[in-house]
Amino acid sequence: MSSKDCGHHEEERRQLLRRIVGAIVAFIVLILLIIFLIWIILRPTKPRFIIQDATLYTFNFSSTSPSVTSPTPNILTLTMQVTLAAHNPNHRIGIYYHNLYAYASYRNQQISLATSIPNTYQGHKDFTIWSPFIYGNAVPVSPFLLSALQLDQSTGTVLVNVKVNGRVKWKVGTWISGRYHIYVNCPAYIRFAGDRSNAIGGVTPAVKFQLLQSCSVDV
């Protein structure tokens, strides 16, 4: 085989390689263009949450001296029911909610058990209402919460954050996406009346607070 033939075959290999690289680049550009067009057409928007109200049954914080029988001196008991409204703002996208759990938090410390929320499908522009009970019986809490609670009580308002964790899936036509984590944080301002100089005790009878407060949502 002459050097001329070898050069010819080498040129053919280069041309083939350029075609392969060009086809790969064109395929990637096509995929990106399709994704961009889908985004432009569908305009996906994460769901919106509002905490409408909260009914407080018990909010009792007790502090005792630690002992062998009671090594944790600070405990909190909480019982409340909240009404959460979720709105799907999308015109062409449905939302599946899976494995949702609601719980209460005070100053970034969980103060209740996690309450399960039923799996739900939410159609285009739909609203969904949940009213979970949130409770925690003698939950151990950090010592610094005592002074924080007393300070909040002196002002007459305690901020309890109602949080929701779970998974969502998007539905477009017959196509359903994989699961994505959703994290919702709803501020609930609980007001206390009466003598604020006493230690925080139980709430009897139940007190309902109209909140209508928007929640932060991360997906």
UniProtKB/TrEMBL annotation:
This protein's UniProt keywords: Membrane, Transmembrane, Transmembrane helix
Organism placement in taxonomy: Eukaryota, Viridiplantae, Streptophyta, Embryophyta, Tracheophyta
Pfam families xrefs: LEA_2
GO term, biological process aspect, one: defense response to other organism
Localization per record: Membrane
Annotated organism of origin: Canavalia gladiata (Sword bean)
Protein's name according to its UniProt entry: Late embryogenesis abundant protein LEA-2 subgroup domain-containing protein
Membrane topology: Single-pass membrane protein
Chief location category: membrane
GO CC field: plasma membrane; plasmodesma
Domain Late embryogenesis abundant protein LEA-2 subgroup: 83-186
Membrane-spanning intervals of the chain: 20-42
